[in-house]
Amino acid sequence: MKRVESLWVPDSLNKVWMITFEMRGIASSGGLGSAVYYLSTGLTKRGMSVTVIMPSHGRHLDGAYRSRLKLRELPLSTSGKRRGVDNQVYPYRLGFERGELDGVEVVLVKGLDEPTGRVMDSWGVYDWAMEKSALLTRGVEALVGTLTLDGVPSLIHAHDWHSVLPGVKAKLALEERRVVVPLVYTVHLLNRVGAPWHYASSDWTGLEDCSHYIWMVSKHVLRKPSEIWDLSEGRIEKFGVYEADLVTSVSKNYLVSEVIPYVGGMAENKSCVIYNGTDWDLGQVLELAKRVTGSEDRKEVRRKLLASLNTMRLVPENYNVGNMLWNHRKSLGIRDDWTYEPLGDGQLILFTGRLVYQKGVDVLVRSFRGVVDREPETRLLMLGIPTDDYALLQDLIDRVSEVRDNVRIIASSSMDPNMYKLLHYSASVMAMPSRWEPFGIGAIEAMSVGTPVVASATGGLSEIVEDLRYSQEGTGFLVEPGNIDSLRSSLLDSVILSKASEGRGGVEGTSFRAVPETWAKARENAVRRVDRMFRWSSVAQQALECYGKALLMAKYRASAYM
Amino acid sequence: MTDRVLVGFEVHQPFRVRRNAFWSPRFRGSPLEKYFDEGKNREVFERVRRKCYIPATNVILDEIEAGEDEGREVKFFFSVSGTLLDQAEMWGRDFLELLQLLSSTGKVEFLAQTYYHSVTSLWEDRTEWREQVQMHRETVKSLLGQEPTTFENTELLTTPVTVEEAERMGFSGYVLEGKESLLKGRSPNFVYRRKGGEISLLPRNYVLSDDVAFRFSNRSWDQYPLTANKYASWIRSSPGQLVTLFVDYETFGEHHWAETGIMDFLRWLPRELDRAGVKMVLPREVVHSPYYELEVEGISSWADIRKDHTSWLGNVMQWAYDEAVRRAEMPSRELKGEFLRAWRYFSTSDNYYYLFTESGGPGEVHSYFSAYDSPLDAFLNEFYAVNSFLHEELKALGVENEPFFFYKDGKRFSVAWNEREFREVLKRDPSLKDHEKFMEEWLK
To answer: Per the database record, which ranges form the Starch synthase catalytic domain (chain A) (predicted)?
Structure first.
């Protein structure tokens, strides 16, 4: 820390606080947990000390977690009373557990009495999300209170809306003590959550309504949190963007087309992009392929995997989804023991993801029918995570029944990870027809094992996939979101090219000028592109660059007080 | 939420039968002069041209250009009838040139329809209908430089046969009314594929279309005033794949006068759609993306509340007029030239529409569009005109015998007046061959 007049400002970046609801290895329900985990461990590898602060989600009550994370209770607790809009008093008591996960320090905030524990220690990550967020803020306040100058983090990084108020509280509590620490806020996915000011105020979550400097387009201006809250129309994410020194998101496109229009243009000149990454490795998958199928040849691996669907027993986790599939099992190729009828040899289009409208699965099955009309030997495997969009599922069932011998839907998230990777490896092409997509981790996973991707030109996908038609470095095709015809045409091109690369036909039927080597080149390009841009090591590097920018913004903020 | 919209206009003017064809008949001149009211037709065309066609098209051209400058796609589709193109060629070449300009932007698609905007698709014998569609297709190609790939039948009249025939004629898209009984409860906001066929069906969202066409200037409407911004948000929040809007072009400046703000609405709509995240597209860009299959059953059209054929063929006056028109078909074909053209003008749907008698909402719409004081008045003059025309033709052909009525499946198919016509009808449909045995007796 460096003293500048009456203020303390970090002089270098060596200690980061990550505030989050998810962390892989502790509690995770989606991509956020992986992103936080890999970013934290990546930074640790670069010599930084990282502390992840999150609600306990009850994990400290489980012996397995306790020993794995080496949890021990911190000699610290905090309690207080909150006043509700009903003018009743609601007491809380929080405690802390400290542990370690792969070199990253972890602090879990837990409840010390029943009403607090019921919220903080509930197993579901997003149960009581608003309340968890409010209580986490109180916990962070207590943690800041214990800090000595040596222990002050050089940067606070808040992930998604649940961490906005804890992050802002940490920033403000330090600023009250005249320590200026940069706050970085990452939008992984906009949730558009809002609440009245009472929720954030000192009555409930604990933000003191004191004037402080925030960045407004071109200069820092003095504002109270309540004013900013109203300016944000009570929308927590927008509030977070005003308060943060730097806003990041998972792709440029998502930032520009979704985040900034939602939060306002003032975020534009204090924004930055930190991609997600993957640890999938082609070398490992090749070994795996050899071990499991005895061959590295994609054609061979594919043939064997498609023929072995009758040994994969995968039951949907969602009862209703299972019930609907079961009722139509005859027309979907599902066998009575929840294994699947084998698919014949042919080119394979792979889909992975939740079975929701956003993922464009309805568009996919319709386009696929057009592909089958031209290339009858094409197969589609949908590794779907079941959701409660039953109308969409019924539509999928109806459409899939029309091409029963070409499609299998496996609606389960408990597939063996090795098999999951092998299917990616063996696929001719991966389809990601999302209507919108902040990042699109599925695309980089496929590309990391050399599978080209046909993706919607939206969000992160348009930065991950390079279109073969316009680039020497092409890794697949980009299509118009929601456009059945455009997806059909690109899938068909992919199938023809993949077939040609395996010596099973020419490239005459493609909609653009291609050569038989195009697909092999696309596969190489895909692997190379992931290695260059979407490895956690390079992601940590991107984060460091953003952090540098945040530190600069925080220094400007400090200078506003002078 | 939909992120695509098709916005289209029907552009049509009929050749009206003379208002006093019966009360002060004419016996000299060509059939066109004797039975059709050139003065009135020209007057209406010129008024609409001044109030709607020129200003509205200029707005659209401006906005297409503004869109190009700002990186937005501003796209519209038009269905322009052949009779309107005829009138524009005679009385308003500047409008024709504007249409050609629209075509050259590449942002406007012209649909095919029946050249004479006729109800011939409802006839058992569809030879004439097919010819009119073909004529229109060729006219659009030669005048506007586009080969239409999407079809819109007169007033969106649709039966299983018209859809099937359109597919056979090589169209890949077909605009029809998003009538509930046709969609069987499904949303009009999708591209459908004809069950058992390939042609894509684009159902018109009539609720949203009518908001502009009928309700725009209605002050007692609870949504008055309708702004482009509000309307764009309605389109955006409609569930489905895309919204198809299709209204009379005369909505802009004629049905709703410019003073109501309709031109500004048209001007701002593309911007507001863009702001709401809705992309303007053309039928030819979406017809290859069918979402569901649809079995077309029954008769549908965009007219009135019943949305079927009864606005044109629903009462005895209309049936009688239609019968007279059909009796004149074969003689007109034989005589060709002005006779054939005049006869085809008689087949225009508007001349049938004036004979609609129901009162209430639809009745009011009809009387607004009518060139006559009442349906009865219309019938008297039109029926007299078409019959005089027929008799003139029969005289010219020297026919003195009774007509021969062809029947197919219990329905009247065609009418022949002499042997040549008889054989012509037989050529059209080989299944009528068994009628041949009656010919000799008929001509005895």
So the answer is: 15-259
Q: Among residues A361, A526, A347, which one has the least CA distance to residue A432?
A: A361
Active site residue B147: no
Chain B contact residues (CB < 8 Å to A):
3-4, 241, 286, 288-291
Chain B positions touching A368 (Cβ under 8 A) are: none
The CATH code of the domain that includes A75 is 3.40.50.2000
A15-29 confidence digits (pLDDT tens): 999 999 999 999 987
Number of structural domains chain A divides into: 2
Coil, helix or strand at residue A258: helix
DSSP-derived 3-state class of residue B324: helix
Across the interface, do B288 and A482 touch by the CB < 8 Å criterion? no
The pLDDT tens digits of the residues spanning A110-157 come to 999 999 999 999 998 999 999 999 999 999 999 999 999 899 999 999
Q: What is the CATH code of the structural domain delimited by B4-294?
A: 3.20.110.20
CB A501 within 8 A of CB A520: yes
Q: Please check whether residues A148 and A180 belong to one and the same domain.
A: yes
pTM for the whole structure: 0.82
Buried b (16+ CB within 10 A) or exposed e, B14-46: bbbbbbebbeeeeeeeebeebbbbeeebeebbe
Domain that holds residue A309: 282-534
Residue A488: its chain B contacts at CB < 8 A?
288
| Phi, psi at B305, each rounded to 5° | -85, -35
Query: Is A485's CB within 8 Å of B291's CB?
Result: no
CA B378 – CA B359 distance, rounded (Å): 16
Task: State yes or no: pLDDT of B361 exceeds 60.
Answer: no
Catalytic residue among B10, B128, B152, B155: B155
Query: Within 10 Å of residue A274's Cβ, how many Cβ atoms?
Result: 24
Cβ pair B397, B333 in contact under 8 A: no
Nearest Cα neighbor of A29 from A61, A2, A57 is A57
